[in-house]
Amino acid sequence: MSGSGNAHLRGENALLTVEDLVVEYTTAAGTVQAVAGVSFDVMPGETLGIVGESGCGKSSTGRAVLRLDHGATGRITFGGERVDQVSEKRMRELRRDMQMIFQDPVASLNPRRSVKHIVAEGLVAAGRPAREQAEVAASTLERVGLGDERFTDVLPRQLSGGQAQRVAIARALAVGPRLLLCDEPVSALDVSVQAQILNLIEDLKAEYDLTVVFIAHDLSVVRSVSDVVMVMYLGTVCEFGDALEVYDHPAHPYTRALLNSVPTTDPENPFEGPALEGDVPSPLDPPSGCRFSTRCPRVQEVCRGESPLMREVRPGQYAACHFPLVDGEPAESAVPDHRAGIRKSE
Ligand SMILES: Nc1ncnc2c1ncn2[C@@H]1O[C@H](COP(=O)(O)OP(=O)(O)OP(=O)(O)O)[C@@H](O)[C@H]1O
To answer: Which family does the UniProt entry place this protein in (predicted)?
Structure first.
């Protein structure tokens, strides 16, 4: 496995813990390892942002938490229960507690059902009485700003993208989840609508006592919502930590390059240095050693041979890099670790 270690996991009080997750897809061209040993945890009430370029395995990671696809291995613990081991029946119950919101809101809604019926779907599946279904659907739609009959009685295709995403959010909330997994929830929406939906999720999070995993390729979106950030590259975790630390002092050359490729207007944080060049290698044939080694501006020989392990570079900030940067300088700890011979990951 070419994962990046588990040093950044914060312990048993986490609501969700994912350890050594591997997701593989069998294709005509061979086996794609979309997720190559990813670990993370989310504390109750926290928002974890998962960020990285398209194809790095963000969606596969989110879908694996809900056991939506075959081909995933690893330990997933939610509320103390091993999601990867429970029966299909129990999994259906757990999915009520872990609701997912997708990128394409219209496609994620049943095209033949009216909005109020869609929002009640989870309650119907849970066997709640008809009156409760109607009441909860109505109050939840009201809460997401769609209480009016001109929204509740229509079909999804009659809604705008933003309205449809509000319906998807209402459907998720109606069953009283503890965790909301948002997979690129605003990237298909107009920029003017994006902020409204982000604000709505933020408000609901507090009101409904939610823990959130927020997946996006857009760094500014992740920054605006996250307490903690996980940066992924080609199926592995590069960096994990407090969002402010990661954004203000990116330690992994990939995080730095990713931030450099976003135009900045902040003179305090220009992050001078090379932006990302070249393409992401194919997950069918990933580079050996550090997966970022083929594009890394700081690459050294050891990086091509040894997978770096996750280690703490500042309090609460971890990077899987042989030569991480701390305040723009190579971390001191990189040198002794390197000399001592970095452990190969299993
Ligand atoms: N069902 C599938 N069958 C085959 N390969 C897949 C499948 N789903 C994803 N992949 C591949 O797995 C890798 C990771 O995809 P994934 O969608 O998880 O990444 P992502 O970071 O969410 O990207 P995006 O933002 O484009 O969805 C990619 O190389 C993708 O082509």
So the answer is: Belongs to the ABC transporter superfamily.
